[in-house]
């Protein structure tokens, strides 16, 4: 892994007032020139943003930060299908009812697993007094506050579902034809056209569900007197109490898998099925098992030949698919024949041979820097994405991508030629392949961890500085304190847990308000915790 990190970083370096009461949902408004549902007569450029999570809000704010003389005749519209902003952080008003997908994978006990100052839009902090590892309520409030503070409301249209979007034109010019429906009135569909489409709909909605031989027979043969057997993706997980008196196997070791084993394992017998080289989170009361091989009518069989006969529930913490359904549908009566995005899990196409933008459910390609479509069907700036990278701090990376996209929309000459962008993408994929990684399986993951994630953001902003689109202050985009805090996230988590146990939250948070003060707090906590662990001979595997 160290080698691939070094190679990827080398490759990047050559490139480029808080309220305790939740507010009322944002009013669905049509106020403000060049932001209404109906097109304006003096528009020179029209832009539709899809999604009001961290990515959508980042690109909306950044477009509005462009000079007034640049964007004064632009129409900018953001469509959000849910009742408010906040993306995955907005709770679902209804409990999940499988197999119908819930609006969000959010569960009531969700807290961030990284300190919140590392997750902020640059220059916009969480309110004073926010716990360092906050619950989801704080995260949702942060996005609501961002919208209110920067007066973004008039551009946001809630309860709007983009049903289909297709390109009508050539590789040089044309328009997006977009069918927009109302969530509250499904039969009310409007067709609009736009010059640019920016997709920021997130990638935590369509679960990746694994299947094994014999699973249907196992599920359908619950022993008499036992809870009904189930195999459910973690998108349906809400409360650990739902699993009391059940024996549970959690499949996967990502963030949701870690939370599930920590929460469920404290209440009932729990196993965690992990790939070789993975380990359960510190403090988890679980028994580790290898990957599942298959099911029999009465047992779960693992790849080492062992089996369990007393399992009642399987929780699949197996991630999500990269799907954008509206790009794979053709707008009604549009005269368009080919969808903008082909969904093909078994495709043999690659970035050089693909005749259209393609998703294999793990990777959308070909894209320049995970953002601009290199489909030969339309210009590169016609379609862009915010928020595709995985294993990265969302708000700051969304902001970096938004800066890049905004300046490219203002002046497409900022971008290299399509041929050069495609060549760069192919080189990146070749680097991954040369080191044993399938780029079409890796997808949009930052394999090099925080180092690659930070280098990616720095490279985007550095590119704009070199092109004269941003002032060159000689600094990296990702501040040193963010780098430190991300690297020391586990130490900070243990430190904050000890602060909470001692009831000293208010003492540590007193007077902490600015970015610099939050950074200083984290430096102090790292020193405090590191010294304590040295004195007590404790660390990641022993601290409780």
Mean pLDDT: 93
What's the CATH class label of the largest domain? Alpha Beta
Q: Mind telling me which CATH architecture of the largest domain this is? A: 3-Layer(bba) Sandwich
Q: What count of domains describes the coordinates?
A: 3
Could you give me the name of the CATH homologous superfamily of the largest domain? FAD/NAD(P)-binding domain
Family: Belongs to the FMO family.
Protein name: FAD/NAD(P)-binding domain-containing protein
InterPro entries: FAD/NAD-bd_sf (IPR036188), Flavin_mOase (IPR000960), Flavin_mOase-like (IPR020946), FMO-like (IPR050346)
GO molecular function, one term: N,N-dimethylaniline monooxygenase activity
What does this entry look like structurally?
The protein folds into 3 domains: 2-205 and 322-466, FAD/NAD(P)-binding domain; 215-316, FAD/NAD(P)-binding domain (3-Layer(bba) Sandwich); 488-536, no CATH class. It is 30% helix and 16% strand. The protein has 14 helices and 21 strands. Helix 11 (480-487) runs parallel beside helix 14 (515-536). The two termini are 29 Å apart.
Which descriptors apply to this entry?
single chain, about 550 residues, alpha/beta, FAD/NAD(P)-binding domain, 3 domains, five-stranded parallel β-sheet, 14 helices
Concise overview:
α7 (394-410) packs parallel to α10, α11 runs parallel beside α14 and α12 packs across α14. The two termini are 29 Å apart. It is built from 14 helices and 21 strands.
């Amino acid at each position: 892994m160290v080698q691939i990190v070094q190679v990827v970083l080398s490759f990047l370096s050559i490139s480029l007032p808080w309220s305790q009461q939740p507010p009322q949902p944002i009013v669905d408004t049509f106020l403000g020139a060049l932001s209404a549902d109906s097109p304006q007569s003096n528009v020179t450029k029209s832009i539709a943003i899809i999604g009001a999570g961290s990515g959508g809000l980042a690109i909306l704010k950044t477009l509005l930060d462009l000079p007034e003389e640049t964007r004064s005749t632009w129409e900018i519209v953001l469509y959000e299908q849910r009742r408010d902003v906040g993306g995955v952080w907005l709770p679902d008003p209804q409990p999940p009812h499988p197999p119908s997908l819930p609006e969000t994978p959010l569960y009531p006990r969700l807290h961030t697993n990284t300190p919140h100052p590392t997750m902020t839009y640059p220059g916009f902090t969480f309110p004073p007094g926010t716990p360092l590892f906050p619950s989801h309520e704080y995260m949702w409030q942060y996005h609501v506050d961002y919208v209110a503070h920067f007066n973004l409301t008039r551009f946001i249209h809630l309860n709007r579902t983009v049903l289909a979007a297709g390109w009508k034109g050539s590789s040089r010019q044309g328009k997006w034809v977009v069918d927009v429906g109302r969530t509250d009135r499904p039969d009310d569909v409007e067709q609009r056209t736009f010059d640019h489409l920016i997709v920021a709909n997130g990638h935590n909605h369509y679960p990746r569900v694994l299947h094994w031989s014999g699973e249907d027979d196992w599920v359908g043969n619950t022993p008499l007197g036992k809870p009904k057997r189930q195999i459910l993706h973690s998108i349906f997980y809400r409360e650990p109490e739902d699993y009391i008196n059940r024996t549970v196997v959690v499949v996967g070791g990502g963030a949701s898998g870690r939370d599930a084993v920590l929460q469920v394992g404290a209440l009932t017998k729990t196993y965690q099925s992990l790939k070789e080289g993975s380990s359960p989170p510190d403090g988890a009361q679980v028994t580790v098992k290898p990957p599942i091989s298959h099911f029999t009518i009465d047992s779960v069989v693992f790849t080492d030949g062992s089996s369990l006969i007393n399992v009642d529930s399987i929780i699949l913490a197996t991630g999500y698919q990269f799907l954008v359904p509206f790009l794979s549908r053709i707008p009604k009566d549009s005269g368009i024949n080919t969808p903008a995005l082909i969904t093909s899990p078994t495709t043999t196409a690659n970035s050089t041979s693909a005749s259209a933008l393609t998703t294999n459910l793990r990777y959308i390609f070909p894209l320049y820097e995970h953002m601009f479509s290199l489909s030969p069907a339309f210009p590169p700036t016609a379609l862009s994405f915010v928020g595709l990278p995985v294993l990265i701090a969302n708000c700051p990376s969304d902001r970096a991508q938004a800066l890049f996209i905004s300046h490219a929309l203002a002046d497409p000459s900022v971008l290299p030629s399509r041929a050069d962008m495609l060549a760069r993408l192919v080189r990146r994929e070749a680097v991954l392949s040369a080191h044993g990684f399938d780029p079409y399986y890796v997808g949009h993951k930052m394999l090099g961890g925080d180092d690659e994630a930070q280098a990616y953001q720095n490279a985007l902003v550095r590119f704009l500085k070199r092109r004269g689109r941003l002032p060159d202050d000689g600094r990296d985009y990702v501040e040193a304190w963010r780098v430190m805090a991300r690297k020391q996230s586990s130490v900070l988590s243990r430190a904050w847990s000890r602060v909470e146990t001692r009831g000293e939250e208010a003492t540590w948070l007193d007077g902490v308000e600015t970015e610099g003060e939050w950074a200083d707090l984290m430096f102090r906590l790292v020193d405090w915790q590191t010294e304590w662990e040295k004195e007590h001979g404790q660390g990641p595997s022993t601290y409780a």
